[in-house]
Amino acid sequence: MTATALVLGGGGAVGLAWTVGMLAGLAEEGLDLSAADVTIGTSAGSVIGARLTSGVRAEEMYREELDGAPELDVTVTLRQTARFLWAALGSRDPRRSAQRLGRAALASRTVPESAVHDAVAVLLAGIRDWPSADLRLTAVDARSGDLATFDSASGIALPDAVAASCAVPVVWPPVSVAGGRWMDGGSRSTANVHLARGARRVIALTPIPKAVGPHPSATAQGAELAAGGALVAVLTPDRAARRAFGRNMLDQTRRTAAARAGRAQAASCADTVRAVWTP
After folding, report:
1. Are strands 199-205 and 231-235 parallel, antiparallel or unpaired?
2. How far apart are the C-alpha atoms of 252 and 70, rounded to whole Å?
3. Residue 69: pLDDT above 70?
4. Using CA atoms, how far apart are residues 158 and 81, in angstroms rounded to an integer?
5. If you average pLDDT over residues 141-169, what whole number do you get?
6. Would you call 121 exposed, middle or buried from its count of C-beta atoms within 10 A (0-12, 13-18, 19+)?
7. Coil, helix or strand for 127?
8. Parallel/antiparallel/unpaired status of strands 180-184 and 134-141
9. pLDDT tens digits, one per residue of 29-65
10. pLDDT at position 75, please?
11. Is-contact 181 143, C-beta < 8 A?
């Protein structure tokens, strides 16, 4: 059984900034979550997970958010939003909902796949190799709707795994890797907290608590792990953080405010995290 698991959920540029702020604030409280036995990253969380397990300190990532980290030019149109919602909400069955979303993603005319890889290269800031730490990154098969995880034993490059995990359906094309076409790991669950099953202590940072469609929330998944005997804390944005987010999680202008809100919130969460994380 694994001792500790850190789960990092998706949430676009804004959610990424909040998560970085939370990690930096918790580290300031003496809670360095980078020491987790296993780190599970979904979408934006895959970027943070890859950097954190590769030795980039949370404080360094936080300072980047405040000082102006490289911005990605990602625009979501009303038509794309409508198509996403139509696909995701078209079935009450989780797998069928993901399949509908996958079909919409495969049929959408978006940027070329190379643009996704270029964006991920910017986000990873030169990191290309899998870390020695146990890092697991999620993606959803755009054809079957099934969730999968990639790790150092999967036989694919780290940047390709991150690109697959970050491929927002309808906005970015599904990424071709490992003989399949893969879309955002948050398509069925924004954090995939359930993948931490087997860990005794679990901390999940989830900027978006629930995926669009008939899917379980991060809180519900955490409760299931707790029912199995694990110590679990699922942390979601507080009211101040939600105000800082605004309505568009890809809004680059909100990143600094979101990062600061995350760091401020960390202080109020420290005791909760300490009770779970400290043996």
Report:
1. parallel
2. 10
3. no
4. 29
5. 97
6. middle
7. coil
8. antiparallel
9. 999 999 999 999 999 999 999 999 999 999 999 999 9
10. 76
11. yes
Distance in angstroms (rounded) separating the CA atoms of residues 41 and 57: 16
pLDDT (tens digit, 9 = 90+) per residue, 88-123?
A: 999 999 999 999 999 999 999 989 999 999 999 999
Give the mean pLDDT of 142-166. 97
Q: In this structure, what token pair is assigned to residue 113? A: 């796949």
Which of 171, 203, 204, 205 shows the shortest CA–CA distance to 187? 171
Distance, in Å, from the CA atom of 106 to the CA atom of 50, rounded to the nearest integer, reads: 26
Q: Find the mean pLDDT for residues 184-205.
A: 97
Q: Contact 10/42 with Cβ under 8 angstroms?
A: yes
Find the angle CA(257)-CA(258)-CA(262) to the nearest 5 degrees.
Answer: 120
Amino acid letter, residue 139: A
Of 258 and 2, more confident: 258
- Residue 216, number of CB atoms within 10 A of its CB: 17
Q: What angle do CA 107, 144, 249 make, to 5 degrees?
A: 60
| Degrees to nearest 5, angle at CA 257 with 251 and 259 | 95
Question: For the chain, what percentages of helix, strand and coil (3-state, to nearest 5) are there?
Answer: 50, 15, 35
Tokens describing residue 17: 């900034």
Q: Is the pTM here over 0.85, yes or no? A: yes
